[in-house]
Structures are given as C-alpha cells and as structure tokens.
Amino acid sequence: MLTHLTLISHAATPAMRQGRFPSDDPLDARGIADASAWRQRVALDIEARALCSPALCALDTAKALGLSVQIAPELADAEYGEWRGLRLVELAGALQAEVATWTRDPHYAPPHGESFEQVRIRVGRWLDALNEAGQVIAITHACVIRAAVVYVLDAPSSSFTRIEVPPLSAIELRHSPRGWALSSTSYRGDPRIGKLT
C-alpha cells in the first residue's frame, strides 16, 4: 500500500510578517490572495483526502486552495506557551539566554509550551498511524513540516534549524512497505504538487 503525502505550509499571517509568535491568527486579505494565487499556479489534486491543522490560518489556507478538509489535531503548530503573540526581537531582548537556547536546543520549550522534540514525537506518531492508500494533502505549519522531515530521515532533532519552510511551500513524502521516505521537495508554484507520479 502506497501513501503519497503532500504537506503544505499555510500562507503568511500578519503575525509572521511582524515577527510575532503565532496565536491562532487568521489570514488577512494578503494571505488569502497569496494562497489563491498559489492555487492557480499548481496542479493540486482537490479530490485527494485533505487534512488540516485546527489553526485558523491553516483552515483559511485550505479554503483559499479549494480544499474540503478534515481537522487533524496532530497537525497543530507547536504550542508556544507564554511566548504566544510576542515579537521575537522584543522577547530576545528580555530573555536573551532563553531564546538563544530555544533556537538551538530541540528539547527546550517556552514556559508552558512545547519543544521541537515533543512536536517531532507527535508528528512521528501521526505518520506511523496514517494508514491509507493514495493521495493525502495536509495543510499545516513550518514546525510540523520540519518535524516530519526530521522523523522520516531519522535525522537528529538538532537539525531542525537547518530546514527552511517558507509559507505556501510543500514537501512530498511516500509510505511503502519499507516505511516513509522523502519523495521530493516542491516550492512555490511547482506544477507537480499534489499529483501522484
């Protein structure tokens, strides 16, 4: 049984453009326009099973992409705890050591938040439980996509800082009897996104 999973990062939010930690922000008109324009450039398989993070920005992205989605809590962004909604530059000034540790140590979590390692474990369990043939599309967050790549490649969690995931970019994973593999990486307008090959 072959599963072809396309993970798509949601469109940019106002908080992202302001350098703020997420706090369940919806897309603004610019984000919706970006997602709609991206949809026109890619051959997205809208008949595929579509899953989505419960976050408003992910749901708004899915709607702009023309997808009818089922919410998957495992696709939620990392929990940023007490840092939710705060600007990174201001936080780095007030808590320089803590922010520096967070950017390097996958086991460090913001107060009342979730570490990258915890996200990796959550996403890995979800991938292992995803048991269906055919195409699956998932609208999610950069952190979740990084976690999926680290998990599939069995890479050290500390490598998460070396994986860049821009808004409205996608990676493709395949699951076969041999397990998960990174199939390809597609960014911004690659017409192959979401099509079985």
Question: Can you give a write-up of this model?
Answer:
This protein is an alpha/beta fold and 197 residues long. It has one domain (3-187): Phosphoglycerate mutase-like (Rossmann fold). It has helices at 14-17, 29-41, 56-64, 88-94, 96-104, 116-129, 142-153, and strands spanning 3-9, 49-52, 70-71, 134-140, 169-176, 179-187. Strands 3-2-4-1-5-6 form a 6-stranded mixed β-sheet. Helix 2 (29-41) crosses helix 3 (56-64), helix 4 packs across helix 5 (96-104) and helix 6 (116-129) packs across helix 7. The longest helix has 14 residues, at 116-129. The chain is globular. Residues 187-197 have low confidence and may be disordered. Pfam families: His_Phos_1 (PF00300). This is Histidine phosphatase family protein. InterPro entries: His_Pase_superF_clade-1 (IPR013078), His_PPase_superfam (IPR029033).
Structure summary:
The protein has helices spanning 14-17, 29-41, 56-64, 88-94, 96-104, 116-129, 142-153; strands spanning 3-9, 49-52, 70-71, 134-140, 169-176, 179-187.
Strand arrangement in the largest pleated sheet: 3-2-4-1-5-6
The proportion of residues in beta strands is: 15-25%
- Unreliable sequence segments: 187-197
Instruction: Name the structural class.
Output: alpha/beta
Q: CATH superfamily membership, which one?
A: Phosphoglycerate mutase-like
Q: In total, how many beta strands? A: 6
Return Rg in Å.
16 Å
What's the CATH topology name?
Rossmann fold
Shape: globular
Percentage of residues assigned to helices: 25-40%
